[in-house]
From TrEMBL:
Xref: Pfam families: UbiA
Principal location listed in the UniProt entry: membrane
Keyword ATP-binding attributed: no
UniProt membrane topology term: Multi-pass membrane protein
Organism: Streptomyces pseudovenezuelae
Name used for this protein in its record: UbiA family prenyltransferase
Membrane-crossing segments per the record: 275-302
InterPro entries associated with the record: Prenyltransferase_related, UbiA_prenyltransferase, UbiA_sf
Protein's UniProt keywords contain Signal: no
Alphabetized UniProt keyword annotations: Membrane, Transmembrane, Transmembrane helix
Localization of this protein: Membrane
Length: 316
């Protein structure tokens, strides 16, 4: 509950500033979430409607819940590796981080149900399960990267489910969901080396995979033709798709190349941050390829805003 301007009260004793809450949930990084849903919805034939907007709200809440839960679960490790974070620094009690995660999870599921009924929960429930399983047990295992990739894959499919019957949604949303999933897998694999640095082969491999992802995304036939795609101008669609794919490589690819040359922890962290925000141009390219270049352009405009905000609050 809000206690006074800029502060929130949790229970009878914990008062937390809005700035610390924003840092806990990596607030600006949530700008990478709406594009998942929009790319899936565009592939299914309708990039924006009230159900899509409700699904976006649900996914943002679940993303923020995952960030808070991550800091709850990693409090002991962060005390050594990232003592400046809100939980290990003592600015936010650990139990409060768990309460924030639980409250945001409930909000996310509620929004999904309100926006799209049972079909909304068909996407939100698996997404919730993957987020909590990753943070509470799978993160440090071999299944960690695949779990996080699956979460982003489901997020894209939730957008398709918001606009089309289940069978159609899963079929049409499969390609963008897979490409976002592949990106997330490379990003999560790279993030394992944020503190101590990585063997050169790790950023070299993720760079090769993300380059292939950009090339596949830029192909004009990567997504099935929908009514939205048929009505869009082919030249504009191609131009925005190519621009998004190039912007993706120019940010995430360049940061990974720097990590290949010098795979220090600092360079790996920069590459991971670039990869989180690099989702926006990738999502823009997928949305344009599906036939919604105007909506894709909005995602592209959000990318520099997200990068600017990331200078104030780290997305990692």
């Amino acid at each position: 509950m809000k206690d006074r301007k800029g502060f929130f009260r949790f229970g009878s004793s914990s008062v937390v500033s809005a700035a610390d809450l924003a840092q806990l949930v990596r607030a600006p990084a949530a700008l990478s979430v709406p594009g998942d849903v929009i790319a899936g919805a565009a592939a299914a034939g309708r990039p924006l409607n009230s159900r899509v907007l409700g699904t976006i709200g649900s996914s943002v809440c679940l993303y923020w819940a995952g960030m808070a839960l991550n800091d709850y679960a990693d409090a002991t490790v962060d005390a050594v590796e990232r003592p400046q974070r809100p939980v290990p620094s003592g600015r936010i009690p650990r139990r409060t981080a768990l309460a924030v995660a639980g409250g945001l999870t409930a909000a996310g599921l509620g929004l999904a149900a309100a926006a799209n009924g049972r079909r909304g929960l068909l996407g939100a429930l698996p997404l919730t399960g993957l987020i909590w399983a990753y943070d509470l047990g799978l993160k440090s295992t071999r299944a960690g990267a695949a779990t996080m990739a699956a979460a982003r894959t489901v997020d894209v499919l939730s957008g398709a489910l918001a606009t089309a019957p289940t069978g159609t949604a899963l079929r049409r949303g499969a390609v963008p969901a897979a490409l976002v999933g592949v990106h997330t897998y490379t990003l999560t694999a790279l993030s394992r080396h944020e503190i101590s640095g990585a063997p050169t082969r790790v950023p070299a491999t993720t760079l090769a995979v993300s380059t292939a992802t950009a090339l596949v995304t830029a192909l004009p036939t990567v997504l099935p033709t929908t009514r939205t795609a048929a009505l869009s101008r082919p030249d504009l669609r191609t131009a925005v798709t190519a621009t998004g794919a190039l912007a993706y490589l120019a940010t995430y690819g360049t940061a990974q190349a720097r990590a290949v040359r010098k795979p220090s922890g600092a360079n790996v962290r920069r590459a991971v941050g670039a990869g989180i925000l690099g989702l926006l141009p990738l999502q823009a390219a997928l949305t344009a390829c599906a036939g919604a270049p105007a909506v894709a352009a909005v995602l592209g405009v959000a990318h520099p805003l997200a990068r600017r905000l990331a200078r104030r609050i780290s997305p990692t």
